[in-house]
Design a protein that fits this description.
5-stranded mixed beta sheet; mainly beta; 26 strands
Amino acid sequence: MTRKDLTSSITSIKAEELNKGGVYSSPGQLLQGKVPGLTITTSSDPNSTPSVTLRGASTFRDTDGAQEPYYVIDGIPGASIALVAPDDIESIDVLRDASATAIYGSKAANGVIIITTKRGKSGSASVTYNGYVAIDQVTKRWDMMSASEHRKYLSDNGLTMSSADYIDETTDTNWQKQVQRTGISHNHNVSITGGTEKTNYSASLNYMKNEGVIKGTDLDRVIARAMVNTKTLQDRLDLGFSINTSITNQNKVWDEKDGLSVLDAMTYYLPESPVFGTDGKYFENLAHSQYYNPVALIEQNQYKLRNKRLQGVAKATLHILPEELTLDANISYQSETENENIYNDIDSKAALNSGGYAKRNTYENTQKNLEIFANYNKTFIDLHKIGAMIGYSWQENNYNDGFQATSKEFTSDALGYYNLGLGSSKDRPDYGTKYFTTLRMISFFGRFNYSFNSKYMFQATVRRDGSSAFGKNNRWGTFPSASLAWRMSEENFIKNLNLFDDLKFRVGYGVSGNSLGFDPLIASVLYGKSGSFINSNGEVVSAIGATRNANPNLKWERTSMFNIGLDFGFFGNRLTGTIEYYDKRTSDLIADYAVSTTKYLVNWMTANVGEISNKGIELSLNATPVQKRYFSWNTSINL
């Protein structure tokens, strides 16, 4: 389908139009300010994940990407964007209304972002390098009292300070300066592409190091990608294979509640207090609760994460009737392993009286995908274009295949978390609360589109999804959509105006669902440890009890959206734009609410309990004021 035949709200951005010149750890950041209705919130913390929402929230939940758009990378649904380096992106398409996203069914309530990566082209090998160095600084610190100002405040108000909070009256510590720094980041990307008329290949290697403005925070990541595509059987069969991997290392600092946070401590710790006491140890007053030396929180506590991702993809396209009928099959396997390592020094107040505390865990998540679909396209007498697609999708996700162990009461900090056996505590280790789960989804989908002389267009889609996560009475959901478009610039009465280069009116309605971020056992009764008791032999035995109620009627969250749009272009399409109105309504929202234990095993239940409504008007303008052979100036406005 060509762009002029589109009937839905879709924003397409090419590589050269994406944001450049910043430290981008996620492809989503490349779209900031580029797409109407797309809100991207970032943080100076290099380990934080940017928040991406499209046309408002569609769910109460905010875990595991429940409010994020659904990502499709090189045709593979649900692929991890952490496997894509920003320099490897060829284009990004954002599907904004439900008539465009409904084909993705239960995963598309938050919109869909389709990423296409660069691939080889016919010709000699081409080697490309891109790199940058960036500096990150705090532009303005909190305006806090100095030591003298604080003493004057106390004196003016008849207050005194404990002698345990300071050593002498000459100390004036700026705790923000003590924990902040200038972050230096750099990124390097090397790629090689090439090929022949029948076979092309591409490979890339990306390395990024991102230092935060808080000491002890940084992220380094390596991404490697390789892809090969070829034609065989007299060009009737296209084959594609790719393998993608990434390794991410993160260093974090303490950022918990009850004062156990470096960001909080640098504002509440008294300026009269020095960093170190007279004994050379970090200065701390244990008489205060929820009160921690921020420098000690950084230096005496290690918090490291290591994430390994691996994805393999195989694709095949059989041209049954060249230019008319094709049969596609895509299969992919993705594995993600996360290692969490924590060590609190023997003297650390973050684990007071533990004598040193260590925790290590490792968990693996896997995702398997299979998609088979057929496409038929035909043009009759150069006026009537029809297209049809039918398909089947199968997906299996396994979560939390791993374990956790802890230890404490160490005699030395030398090995940190590397040898849990050195801990001398006889207490039962903390094995964590995660448990292995499996989610399976099956889908059937279809699409039909018709275009008359590229003037009047119609498209309809339907998808039937089944998920093992929901209640046994509501495991299947149906998600339809329909849209119409009228390319008014093809009408004679518009052409005679000699004003518009393009003018198209669109209207669409669709229903999509949200199955992202769910515990696969969300609708099932769960049993877990619920205390302990002493049996008849005098032994302490763990008790097993219900920890979640079953809800056989739990069903899909459903988002319906009505969208009206007008696309226009002037001055040889050097000024183009779109104005849209949308009405987005989500029903059957899933949340927890209190129930009586006289009827249920547990005092809360997960159920469909609410609705959300989002409405808005969006305006997008794109202008090319200057377009010369060697210089062009492009600008855009999105509201």
